[in-house]
Amino acid sequence: MTLSARLQGPKGSPPLRHWTRAAATALSPGGITLVATAAAVLAVLLGVQVAHLNDQVSHLQSAAAKPGLSRAVQTALEQPSTKRVKLVPSGATAASGPSVTVALTSSGAAYLIPQDLSALPTGKTYQLWGQIDGQMISLGLLGPAPAVTAFSVNPETPVSAFAITAERSGGVLQPTSTPVVQGAVTA
């Protein structure tokens, strides 16, 4: 097919080069401005709608997560086989300091329930540790202001104690500070 045949377009239509000029001249500067304005308004409206829907989804996820975790914690605490491990500061401040409860189920599902654990400054995080076979093993980072947190342990490898330390953001491989709270798992 020759170039001139390609520019002709469908039979009976003006040549393509004439058609594109006609289309370009049909949209006057005012028409182009109108189309651009309509597109901008539509983009803004869609952006606002997406932001609104995103906010609603976040709100619903947050609301749904809390009662679900609360139900899971409550269910775990109601099971007679669940071990309740009280983590408290060691030494003279034990009576007045923060306390944390770990609810440890027989399946290995566990829940950390902090009470009065003060928020850490920027650059710091709480880190949860489990003592397994005499070694402190990191069970996860809790952030600078922990809330009720679910975690799990291998039920076939018993944890003999839990501890929480204040570490640098990102965590560490081994504890670098004295535990903020700690507690032994009893039978």
Largest sheet: 4 strands, antiparallel
Separation, N- and C-terminal Cα atoms: 88 Å
Report the C-alpha radius of gyration, rounded: 32 Å
Number of contiguous helices? 3
| Percent range for β-strand residues | 25-35%
Low-confidence stretches: 56-66
Overall geometric form: elongated
The spatial strand order of the largest sheet comes to 1-2-3-6
Structural class: alpha+beta
Q: How many β-strand runs?
A: 8
Q: Could you spell the SSE succession in H and E letters?
A: HHHEEEEEEEE
Q: Helical content, roughly?
A: 25-40%
Mean pLDDT: 79
Overall description:
The protein has helices spanning 3-8, 16-26, 29-78, and strands spanning 83-87, 99-104, 109-115, 124-132, 135-143, 149-152, 161-168, 181-184. The chain is 36% helix and 28% strand. A hairpin with a 2-residue loop joins strand 4 (124-132) and strand 5 (135-143).
Write the layout of secondary structure elements.
Layout (H helix, E strand, L loop, with lengths): L2 H6 L7 H11 L2 H50 L4 E5 L11 E6 L4 E7 L8 E9 L2 E9 L5 E4 L8 E8 L12 E4 L3
Antiparallel strand pairs: 1-2, 2-3, 3-6, 4-5, 4-7, 7-8
Give a concise summary.
The protein has about 190 residues and is α+β, with helices and mostly antiparallel strands.
List keywords for this structure.
4-stranded antiparallel beta sheet, alpha+beta, 187 residues, single chain
